[in-house]
Every structure is written in C-alpha cells, then in structure tokens.
Amino acid sequence: MKIAIIGAGALGSVIGFHLAPVISITLVDPWAEHVGAINATGLRCTYNGDETSRSIPATTDPASVEPVDVALVTVKAAQTAWAAETAAQLLKPGGVAYTLQNGLGNAEVLSRRLGTLRVGQAVTTLGATLLGPGRVRLAGRGPTTFGAAPSLSIAYALADTFRTAGLPAGVSTDLNSLVWGKLIVNVGINALTAILRVPNGALASVPAASALVRQAVEEAVAVARAAGITLALADPVAETLAVAQATAANRSSMLQDILRGAPTEIDTINGAIVREGRRLGVPTPFNELLCDLVKALEATAPLRVQEP
Ligand code: PAF
Fold first, then answer.
1. 151 and 34 belong to one structural domain
2. Atom 4, ligand 1: which residue's CA is nearest?
3. Given 2, 76, 92, 182, which residue is catalytic?
4. What's the CA gap between 19 and 82, in Å, rounded?
5. Is the peptide bond before 150 cis (omega within 30 degrees of 0)?
6. Beta pairing, strands 68-73 & 58-59
7. For atom 6 of ligand 1, which residue has the closest CA?
C-alpha cells in the first residue's frame, strides 16, 4: 500500500514520522517552506525532550508523486478544498482519501470533488504541536479510529499499518458517534482557550472557565441529541474537562492558529453546532457568541496590542 499524507502540519508530520519506517509515504503540503525544511534536514520530531530526525520525501506538487492507494488528509479546514484537488491528482482509481481533520463538514468538501465512495473518515486523538517548518512535538499517542466506510479492507490495512508503526489504531462501524464525541470536546476546549489565551488545563482548573465549557458543551449535546447521534461520551461535560486536564500543558490547535495569525477552524467546530442547531431548531446562543468572538480575534490580529 502506498500512502500520501496531505498536510505537513502538526498532525500530518507526526503521522508521517511514525509511518515512514514501515510503509512508502510522501508528504504533500501547500507551503514550500515546510517542504523545503523537511527535504533539507529531514522531519524532526521531539518527544519527551528528545529530538529524532527522519528522512521523508515531501513535495508541493502532487503531479510529481506516483499514484497512491490512500491519501490521509490532515490539513486545517481552510485548506480542505485544496486537499480535495490534491487527492484527486494523487489517488489511483479505487484509492480512498481519509479525513483525520477536526470538526464537521470536511468529508463533504472532499466528497464533492472525489465522490462519496472515495472518501473515508477517521478520528484521531494523537496530540501534536508544530514547532516550525519540518519540526513537530509529539504530545501523546492517543488512538486513531478509521471508519469502516467506504472500504473495510482499506480501513483494516490502515489500522494495522498504524499499529505496526507504534500508533494505537482500530476500525469502527459507528464512526459518527466518535466524530461527534471529538467535536464536542473541541467545542468545549478550542474556542475558549483561544479567546482566554490559556493552555487547556486552565479550563479544568479555573471554575469560572469550566462553567463556560459547560455552556458550550451542553448546547452541543442538545444539538447532537436532536440529530439522533448516540454519543460515545457518557458525561460530555466531565469528559471534556478530563481531556482539558489530560492535555493541561497543551495549547489547543485553535489557540496555536490565533497566535500564528492563521485562520481557525471555528466554522467546522462551534460553527457546525450553530448550523446544525438552526437546521434542527435547537438554540445555540453561546456557541454563536464564541464564533463571533473568534472571528473578531482573527480579523483584529493586525491591530493587536503588543505585550510590553
Ligand atoms: O484541537 C485540539 O487542540 C485537540 O483536539 C484538543 C483535544 C482540544 C487538545 O488540544
């Protein structure tokens, strides 16, 4: 099996770093700076303070890559349309693109270009932070679950490959409950850490912040129930706070985006709850407010007052 990873950000780099010794892999990324760094010095991954470098081919040009069986899509939501075009060029006939991205709506963007039979979804809890072009820090090897659709055999092959590479992985026939479970955790953590500019742990340790997590999560759970989703979380608020505690020192991906001045995934996370809420007649005023605040943060980035 030949795999291409679309996106050499935090998640794509960590996956590529692990898979490279066990399978043929290429990283495809829109940023020449990332690709140049990976090709010049290898992909460098830090774990528990130790840095290891691995040589992995990287390119900005999908036409230069031999056709692959699987494309793992790990870009941020803002680049999903580019990832769909890139996957269309990379995949063999019968090849499948799996989205490992946060939030809702990415699979639909990929499906519009590739067709639903060539798009799968996976949910990952791998923790990673991009330190710079070609440099990534692994925070934790949480499990990755591949959806059984559209190809059970490819899903099993991917899970096997991940496990051989030291990354816990499995296959699920009910991925939707995991997708929504992760969405709800992201709804509770990402926007609030970006607005408050705190590491994840502050949401669990500061009661005033935990109360805001509760409001965001309770609205999202009401929307999930109205959508008929059986959530994989028994107590969504407690489990969201437990993830915040377990990743206490991490900066959420949305806080990292805001600090870099990059577009965030607010539309596919809290925005998805607002959209689904409207469709199903469930009010989501707190998530609407979070969306407006994060959009204002994105838009005012150039005007931000510098720390003395
Ligand atoms: O997006 C993220 O940062 C992560 O999914 C999570 C779980 C919130 C941890 O930082």
1. yes
2. 252
3. 182
4. 23
5. yes
6. unpaired
7. 252
Ligand 1: which residue has its CA nearest to atom 10? 252
Is 60 domain-assigned? Answer: yes
Q: Is there an atom of ligand 1 within 6 Å of 189 CB? A: yes
Say how many Å lie between the CA of residue 186 and the centre of ligand 1: 6
> Ligand 1 centre from 116 Cα, in Å?
27
Same domain flag for 182 and 143: no
Same domain for 133 and 182? Answer: no
CATH of residue 230's domain is 1.10.1040.10
Query: Where is the domain boundary, 136, 155, 172?
Result: 172
Give the pTM: 0.93
Residues spanned by the domain of 207: 176-299
Q: Is residue 262 part of a domain?
A: yes
Active site residue 76: no
Shared domain for 86 and 210, answered yes or no, is no
So what's the ipTM on this one?
0.97
Best residue for ligand 1 mutational test, from 217, 253, 269 (most atoms within 8 Å of Cβ): 253
Overall domain count for the chain: 2
In a domain, 304, yes or no: no
The count of other CB atoms within 10 Å of the CB of residue 281 is 8
Q: Same structural domain for residues 142 and 243?
A: no
pLDDT in tens, the chain (308 residues): 999 999 999 999 999 999 999 999 999 999 999 999 999 999 999 999 999 999 999 999 999 999 999 999 999 999 999 999 999 999 999 999 999 999 999 999 999 999 999 999 999 999 888 999 999 999 888 899 999 999 999 999 999 999 999 999 999 999 999 999 999 999 999 999 999 999 999 999 999 999 999 999 999 999 999 999 998 788 999 999 999 998 898 889 999 999 989 999 999 999 999 999 999 999 999 999 999 999 999 999 888 887 77
**178 CB contacts (<8 Å, ≥6 apart)?**
123, 145, 172, 232
Distance separating alpha carbons of residues 239 and 163, to the nearest angstrom: 25
Count other Cβ atoms within 10 Å, centred on residue 137: 20
Six-digit token pair at 304?
Answer: 């931000």
